[in-house]
Amino acid sequence: MITVVVPIYNNARFLDSLIRQFYQQTASDFEVVFVDDGSTDNPQKIINQIDDDKLIYRYIRQNNQGVGAARNTGIDQAQGQYLMFVDPDDQIMPNFVAEGANVIKKADLGIMAFDLIDAQQNQLISHHQWKNVEYQYSDFLKNFSSLYNSELLFSVFNKVYDAKILKRQQLRFSKLRMGEDFLFNMQYFDLIDSVSLTDVVTYRYMIYGEGTATTSFHGDEFDCSYSNQQYLIDFLNRHNVYDEKLVSLHWSLILAYRFADVRKLKQRGSKEYHFARSQFLEILTIFKKERLVKVMLLPPVRMMKYLVMVTKLNRVFL
């Protein structure tokens, strides 16, 4: 019934644990497609040790093209009626597949609850969930801002997709280096008629320390975020649910992430610091010229932080 796609790139050290978690699934009617995106740490050696009696799986290797391309290969090769995605360095609960099958039965998209976990301390950072509910599309749009702010709409790991829709509409992940999950979801939202949500936690998204892919500076972060935010604005306008408060809040968060980048690079004494600082000042001119944030619509604490970032007070931190 379900295909679970696992993109792999130089994270073989997590595979033993993930494979055991697949063994522990309460559901049995699923396959796992491991897509090796040109790893150099020999994940195939671990995957070849999988017990065929415990797990239906396939291993596919391709030249390194990025996580989006690996997931696209998984979509193309999937034989299940529905698709789910797992990153090797996260953790899935024994109910991950079973609850996924349950939540998608009467809808075009299933959304499940998840936890954010500090991987170093193995401590809960935050919990993301919604009530158990089935929405027709009009109701989904009415609740869109609240769902967006709950962070349930960004990622692919807490969702179940209809493979027929993906393949019929030829929807695939973009080549964006960052935020490709968000764009994929936003495009999928345009193709569906119904959404089902469950408050059952099935996934643990692991937050790792400094030096991981999510904490490295590449220089294109703002371009990726800007592109995705523009898509969001277009989506809200097309469906007549534009929310200026939501848009302003997330523009301010986009700027805050770039502000944090510069501060971290400064603290590390990184050679990229001066470039990042100069780039941040250029981003500020875009924010001011395009009037991206309606300051009075921000929550009080966020308003104070935003004013620090966009005034001369930012020199204290940069």
Automatic annotation (TrEMBL):
Pfam family, one: Glycos_transf_2
Listed InterPro entries: Glyco_trans_2-like, Nucleotide-diphossugar_trans
Domain of life assignment: Bacteria
SUPFAM superfamilies: Nucleotide-diphospho-sugar transferases
Domain Glycosyltransferase 2-like: 3-166
Protein name: GT2 family (WcaE)
